[in-house]
Structures are given as structure tokens and as C-alpha cells.
């Protein structure tokens, strides 16, 4: 059986790994010229962590993870307003969590299929017919399975399921991420997640190694249109937020080196059609607000491969995957919209104060689980779902 996967990101590579495990002939293409080096820190836990463990990837996952000791908020003068020992978060999810840069997670998955699958960068799927898949490099492949794992703005979704505007739910925010080198900023944020305690906009810092600092930004705007010059927009939007922010913005790389996008969810009526399926953000982006997109991408890919293995035909396996996975993802999307957004990027001083208080009481025994559980509701495990 042959599979063509569009997208060598987290979901696509996880699926490639699992299909190869089940003896599929796997071809993966990615539009980018090579692996994306820029990135942001990911908290990887929940069903994706469980699936990665089942795939035997946990030891390498822990090896590539970045240690985080503390999580804190700072005010405009750089003073800590609240700090929480990061192990409290880990304890709340029974230690089944790592913080890892997105490129490192992708690297781990890519290494896991190295030499086992055909992986082509700088290549896209241009046409999907009833029998074959036509690639931009001129290759025509017979395929029993075609998967769109090509992210929020999925090409396969547009090609097979319809235009993006019908599926994309803009959450009223835009986000950016980049890495820069500044030994002084690094010194202040090394080993910690440091977030600015601000209304309607936020910057998060994480000290990587060798003076490198990863930051992500998020700000509210009713206008979904992406700016022509993201760097100029960031410098304007995040001006006057204290010294750390000023230094980060001063070292912001040129616009084409920044990750920049809308904060959005994908809500599309169908993820599967005959032998074509969507996984990860292409099917069901939950947004960075949910903090679980990568986890759901790995878990969904794993479940898809396992349901195909159990089914008597590809369309049956795909429909089964969609039926089991949809309610899980819908729950995470709802929680992100209804509960987490205001908590993550507050619009009111009262929320900001309540959040500060919430993190303080989190230090009391038992309350850590309640707080983490209410922000990131524990869904059913992938094993319970039939993987
Ligand atoms: C700032 C930020 C913080 C986040 N924090 C977390 C977190 O803490 N925990 C968590 O679990 N998740 C987090 N996420 C979400 C997570 O990064 C995504 O959900 C995850 O990367 C989705 O994986 P994916 O493989 O589905 O898509 P992507 O990672 O977007 O990969 C898609 C791949 O498809 C390729 N591609 C795109 N278009 C095409 C095309 N037309 N043809 C071929 N290839 C194409 C791209 O080059 C890319 O390699 C965060 C996101 C952001 C932005």
C-alpha cells in the first residue's frame, strides 16, 4: 500500500513513522526548501506525549527537550509579579510533559523515518485524481492514501475539500516567533518561561543556549489581514513594554525570517473523502491558545494509522478515524475559545489580577491539578480511543 503525505511537519512525519511501521510505502513532500529552523517553545503533553511514547520516541524526546525550572510574569520594569515552579505543571500531568523547540520535535520525528520513507522538500502535490497524485517535480504516483498534513493553510484541504475562507475561524489575534542572540537577555530568562503581564498583547521569552533566546508574541487585532512588513508591525505593537521587549525588538530578524500568522482554528465539515484525509492543523488547528496543537497532531496521526490498520479498506479506516477523533478536538477547540483566550491574553485588569492570584494559590496542594485541568481539560487517551 502506498501513501502520499503533503507536509513534513509534526503531524505528517508522525504519520509517516506509523504508516512505515505498518509496512506502507510512504512518500512525504513539503513546500519548504528544507526543515524550518526558526521556531518557538512547545509544551508537549497529553495524547501526543502518550502516542510518542507508544511509538518508542520518549527517550529521544526527553533528550532533545529544553529544561524549564520556572514560569513567571514580569511587569513593564522587568520585576517578577508572579512565579511558579515549573515542576507543579509537570506534577499535574504526572510528569508526562516536555518543553521542546518546535524544530527539535520535528527533527526527532524526521530522524525516526530517516531512510525509511521518501522525503522531498521544495515539492508540492499539484493534483489529486481518482487514481494518482501529481507532484510539482513532475512525478506521478499511484496512491492508496493521500493525506494533507500541510498545516493551517493546507493546500490539500483547498484542493480536495474547498476554499480556506470557509474553514478558518480567526480568533482576533496575530502571533509571531523568532530566535535572537543576546547574552544579557539570555542571562535574565535562562531556564524560565518569562511572560509579560500585559493587556491585549504579550511577549514570552525562553533562554535556549549559548546566549540564544526564543520569543513568541501575540496581540489582539480585529483585522485578520497579515501585515506587509511583520517586523515593522511587531516594533510598533510591542513598543513601550520594558527593557527585555525593547532589546528583543531591536534584534528582530528581517520579516521573511519571522514566523508570523493569524491565531486561528480550522473547523471544516469533513476531514476525509474516500482515500484522502487531513491530519494535524490542516484538519483541526486548535490555535496556540490551546497549547496542544502539536500534541493533537501527533496523536491524531497515530490514531489514523492504527484505525487504517484495523479496517478492511482505506475509506473505512479514514471514516473511523474521523468519527473517533472529531469530538476530542472539538472539545479542545471549545475550551480554548471559551476559557483560555481571556486568561492567556487578558483584555481586563480584573482577569490579569485573577490570573496572578490563580498562580499564587496553585502552590497549594491539590490546586495545581484543578487549575491545569480547567485550562487544559484531560480528554480520553489515545488507547481508549482505539489506537
Ligand atoms: C507561538 C506558538 C506556540 C505554540 N505552542 C504550542 C504548545 O505549547 N504545545 C502544542 O502542542 N502546540 C503548540 N503550538 C501549535 C503547534 O505548533 C501546531 O499545532 C503544530 O505545529 C501543527 O503541526 P502540523 O504538522 O499539523 O502543521 P505544521 O507544523 O504547520 O506543519 C505543516 C508543514 O506543511 C508544510 N506545508 C505547508 N503548506 C504546504 C503545501 N501547500 N504543500 C506542501 N507542504 C506544505 C509546511 O512547510 C510544514 O512543514 C504553538 C503554535 C504557535 C504558533
Short description:
Helix content is 39%, strand content 26%. The protein has 387 residues and is α/β, with parallel strands linked by helices.
Describe what you observe in this structure.
39% of the residues lie in helices and 26% in strands. The chain has 387 residues and is α/β, with parallel strands linked by helices. The protein has a domain at 2-35 and 47-63 and 99-167 and 268-343: FAD/NAD(P)-binding domain (3-Layer(bba) Sandwich), CATH 3.50.50. The strands form 4 sheets. It has a 7-stranded mixed beta sheet with strand order 5-4-13-14-15-12-16. Bound molecules: flavin-adenine dinucleotide.
* Count of alpha/pi helices: 14
| Morphology call | globular
Helical fraction equals 25-40%
Q: What ligands can be seen in this structure?
A: flavin-adenine dinucleotide
Q: Determine the CATH topology of one domain.
A: FAD/NAD(P)-binding domain
Q: What is the alpha-carbon Rg in Å? A: 21 Å
- CATH top level of one domain is Alpha Beta
Q: Note the main sheet.
A: 7 strands, mixed
Low-pLDDT runs of 5+ residues are: none
Mean pLDDT: 93
Intertermini distance: 20 Å
CATH H-tier superfamily of one domain = FAD/NAD(P)-binding domain
Strand fraction equals: 25-35%
Q: What is the topology, as strand order, of the major beta sheet?
A: 5-4-13-14-15-12-16
Number of strands: 18
Pfam family, one: FAD_binding_3
Protein name: FAD-dependent monooxygenase
InterPro entries: FAD-bd (IPR002938), FAD/NAD-bd_sf (IPR036188), FAD_aromatic-hydroxylase (IPR051704)
GO molecular function: monooxygenase activity
Amino acid at each position: 500500500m502506498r501513501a502520499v503525505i503533503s507536509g513534513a511537519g509534526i503531524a505528517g512525519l508522525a504519520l509517516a513513522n506509523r504508516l512505515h511501521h505498518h509496512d506502507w510505502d510512504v512518500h512525504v513532500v513539503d513546500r519548504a526548501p528544507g526543515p524550518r529552523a526558526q521556531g518557538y517553545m512547545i509544551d508537549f503533553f497529553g495524547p501526543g506525549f502518550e502516542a510518542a511514547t507508544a511509538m518508542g520516541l520518549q527517550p529521544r524526546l526527553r533528550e532533545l527537550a529544553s529544561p524549564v525550572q520556572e514560569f513567571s510574569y514580569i511587569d513593564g520594569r522587568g520585576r517578577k509579579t508572579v512565579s511558579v515552579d515549573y515542576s507543579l505543571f509537570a506534577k499535574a500531568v504526572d510528569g508526562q510533559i516536555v518543553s521542546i523547540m518546535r524544530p527539535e520535535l520535528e527533527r526527532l520525528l524526521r530522524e525516526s523515518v530517516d531512510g525509511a520513507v521518501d522525503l522531498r522538500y521544495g515539492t508540492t502535490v499539484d493534483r489529486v485524481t481518482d487514481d494518482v497524485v501529481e507532484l510539482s517535480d513532475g512525478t506521478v504516483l499511484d496512491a492508496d492514501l493521500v493525506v494533507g498534513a500541510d498545516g493551517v493553510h493546507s493546500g490539500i484541504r483547498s484542493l480536495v475539500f474547498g476554499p480556506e475562507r470557509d474553514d478558518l475561524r480567526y480568533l482576533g489575534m496575530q502571533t509571531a516567533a523568532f530566535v535572537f542572540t543576546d547574552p544579557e537577555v539570555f542571562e535574565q530568562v535562562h531556564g524560565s518561561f518569562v511572560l509579560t503581564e500585559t493587556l491585549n498583547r504579550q511577549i514570552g521569552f525562553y533562554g535556549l543556549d549559548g546566549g540564544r533566546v526564543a520569543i513568541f508574541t501575540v496581540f489582539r487585532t480585529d483585522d485578520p489581514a497579515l501585515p506587509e512588513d511583520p517586523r515593522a508591525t511587531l516594533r510598533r505593537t510591542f513598543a513601550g513594554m520594558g527593557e527585555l521587549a525593547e532589546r528583543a525588538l531591536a534584534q528582530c530578524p528581517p520579516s521573511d525570517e519571522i514566523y508570523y500568522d493569524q491565531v486561528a482554528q480550522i473547523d471544516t465539515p469533513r476531514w476525509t473523502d474516500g482515500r484522502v484525509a487531513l491530519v494535524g492543523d490542516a484538519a483541526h488547528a486548535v490555535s496556540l491558545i490551546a497549547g496542544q496543537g502539536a500534541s493533537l497532531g501527533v496523536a491524531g496521526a497515530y490514531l489514523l494509522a492504527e484505525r487504517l490498520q484495523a479496517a478492511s479498506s482505506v475509506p473505512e479506516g479514514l471514516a473511523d478515524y474521523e468519527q473517533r477523533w472529531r469530538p476530542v478536538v472539538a472539545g479542545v477547540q471549545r475550551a480554548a475559545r471559551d476559557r483560555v483566550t481571556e486568561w492567556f491574553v487578558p483584555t481586563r485588569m480584573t482577569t490579569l489580577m485573577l490570573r496572578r492570584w490563580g498562580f499564587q494559590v496553585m502552590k497549594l496542594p491539590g490546586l495545581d491539578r484543578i487549575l491545569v485541568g480547567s485550562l487544559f481539560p484531560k480528554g480520553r487517551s489515545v488507547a481508549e480511543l482505539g489506537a
